[in-house]
Amino acid sequence: MTERLSGHTLLISLIATPIRHSLSPKMHNEAFAKLGLDYAYLAFEVGNQELADAVKGIRALGIRGSNVSMPNKQAILPLLDELSPAAQLVGAVNTVVNQDGKGHLVGHITDGTGAMRALKEEGVSVKDQIITMTGGGGAGTAIAIQAALDGVKELRIFNIKDPSYANAQETVDKINQHTDCLATLTDLADQEAFKKSIAESSIYIDGTGVGMKPLENLSLINDPEMIRPDLVVFDVVYSPRETKLLKFAKEHGAKKAINGLGMMLYQGAEAFKLFTGEEMPVDYIKAVLFDEE
Ligand code: NAD
After folding, report:
1. 62-76 confidence digits (pLDDT tens)
2. What angle is formed at CA 237 by the lines to CA 234 and CA 241, rounded to 5 degrees?
3. Which tens digit of pLDDT belongs to each residue from 136-152?
């Protein structure tokens, strides 16, 4: 790495907290090195308190772009100059591009496009489909909005009655107002409605994080009748690689049970493209990041 850093090297930052566990610095730096791009990617421990100064720093230092994660994804909105249409609808940003290095900061959200690309890579098209989703929190919102923008016919969100319910309602309203997709929200406690919706859907997306620690022994689907060979099951969780839901789906015949690794990889690849204009060498990055575990 030191061999390729110079006075001309362009910096990409990641601002979030906690952030030291993130795979993003490795993902991007390996990709820069592989393509011989004169960029470096560094993580900075930044919370809401430091955010405004950090954004000033991006402008002052000519940092070329930044990824943004919790707790800054929404708090950064008023500090930016422009938002992509998807970021505007989602109301959150995970990627900031310093246009031409001149301090004009444009916010994007690549979680949704990353999830759609992950499905596409598995041969799954969302266009004109009926999708049932659980989870209308951060990840769920980004996926729901992008799915609607990409031509999903019907999107049926199920959420428990917790603080995310109101957020899910806002998402449904935005989708119905701004896209051709018909979106609905139902309390997940209505299990009959959930079951019926899955039976009418070609794709089920779990955007809740259930299946990840400390909920690793939970799945929101436990009835084998809800699984069919032609039901695509997509879980945003990638640690563990196989959640209880995905194991259950495979055991009961689902042909496509997809974990969140692809979403993670492609949200990074989409950000990489925005930062550099180049395609991330995803097969290489997949091997570097995931095959060693
Ligand atoms: P969040 O807190 O914003 O939303 C969580 C959602 O899950 C809410 O809708 C909440 O109502 C629901 N929920 C929580 N506990 C539940 C339960 N016991 N039963 C049913 N629903 C429940 O969180 P988030 O930021 O949206 O993250 C959700 C998951 O997505 C996390 O596991 C995160 O790691 C994962 N994620 C993955 C990627 C990726 O690239 N693969 C990207 C972002 C987030």
Report:
1. 999 999 999 999 999
2. 90
3. 999 999 999 999 999 99
The Cα–Cα gap between 18 and 4 comes to 28
Tell whether ligand 1 has an atom less than 6 A from the beta carbon of residue 211.
Answer: no
User: Does the beta carbon of 137 sit less than 6 angstroms from any atom of ligand 1?
Assistant: yes
Ligand 1 site, residue 182, Cβ cutoff 6 A = no
Phi, psi at 165, each rounded to 5°:
-60, -45
Nearest to 207 by CA among 185, 244, 187, 235: 235
- Residue owning tokens 């690793």: 216
Could you tell me where the beta strands, DSSP code E, fall in 219-289?
232-235, 257-258
| pTM exceeds 0.85 for this model | yes
Indicate which residue's Cα is closest to atom 17 of ligand 1: 210
The catalytically annotated residue of 34, 73, 247, 286 is 73
Q: Where are the alpha helices (H) located in 91-181, listed in sequence order?
A: 111-121, 138-149, 164-178
